[in-house]
Amino acid sequence: MPAIKDEAITLRRLDYSETSQVLVFLTREHGCRRLIAKGIKRGTKKHFATGIDLLERGQIMFVSKSQSDSSLGTLTEWRQLDAYLGLRDDLRRLYGGQYAAEITTAMSEEAEPDVGLFDALRELLEGLACGADPLPLLVGYQCAALRSAGLWPDLSRCIVCGRPAPAGRAGFFAVHQGGLACRDCEPGIVEKRKVSGATLDALREARLTPHTARDAFDLLNYAISHIIGRQPALARFLLTGT
Ligand SMILES: [Zn+2]
């Protein structure tokens, strides 16, 4: 059982006994991993150890029974690289980071590596920690998470009749069909949602204004909620107050 070295971001933490933690990490090269960190909260008389916090990035070493093993592995080393302190100054930015952690945990397969997704999460946390507006950054991350899961919707044509969807025109977004339906085909689809042409163009071109960022976030959150079977807990806090 050789130890594996990687870079990782904490997605979930659960205190386990007085001195240990169970952590869910997104690693850069080894996908999502659930690891137990034994004794990580054991302090000394001078030094109080609190363990590893959510949304920290660090260098880790861990042992798991096999390369693709999805059972609980053991964290043997942690060296913090970034605590993203700027993220913790502002509740909305912190919620943004927690939202990203929640959808990542819900949408990623264990031990399925995706370097692009890891880099997108790191960029998101860096942006949030620098004080950027959360919604445009979060839309970028929602796109990355949907692409990583192979569930990016087709916004270029009607998924029923195949006619191209012209720029600037509103459409009906149907999650289970994986894309847009035109006006003629939408009556036959039960679960759908109308989207403005401006929001569709913003998503196609990855160019967001404050207004389209809110709509695009709402739309992709709707898609993600259907995919994971529940509404992410912090979505409504991110949608209010903008
Ligand atoms: Zn159609």
Write the layout of secondary structure elements.
Layout: E1 4-16, E2 20-27, E3 32-37, E4 57-63, E5 73-82, H1 91-107, H2 115-129, H3 134-148, E6 154-158, E7 171-174, E8 179-181, E9 193-195, H4 197-205, H5 210-228, H6 235-239
Parallel strand pairs: 3-5, 6-8
Antiparallel strand pairs: 1-2, 1-4, 2-3, 4-5, 7-8, 7-9
Number of E strands: 9
Contiguous helical run count: 6
* Category by helix and strand content: alpha+beta
Helix content: 25-40%
Taken in chain order, the helices and strands follow as EEEEEHHHEEEEHHH
Oligomeric state of the chains in view: single chain
- Terminal residue distance: 50 Å
Physical arrangement of strands within the biggest beta sheet:
1-2-3-5-4
| Rg, Å, rounded | 20 Å
Main sheet overview: 5 strands, mixed, barrel
Morphology: elongated
Q: What's the average pLDDT?
A: 91
| Low-pLDDT runs | none
Which hetero ligands occur in this complex? zinc ion
**Strand proportion:** 15-25%
Question: How would you describe this structure to a colleague?
Answer:
This protein is an alpha+beta fold. The chain is built from six helices and nine strands, in the order βββββαααββββααα. The strands form two sheets. A five-stranded mixed β-barrel has the order 1-2-3-5-4. It has a four-stranded mixed beta sheet with strand order 6-8-7-9. Helix 1 runs antiparallel to helix 2, helix 2 runs antiparallel to helix 3 and helix 3 runs parallel beside helix 5. Zinc ion binds next to loops.
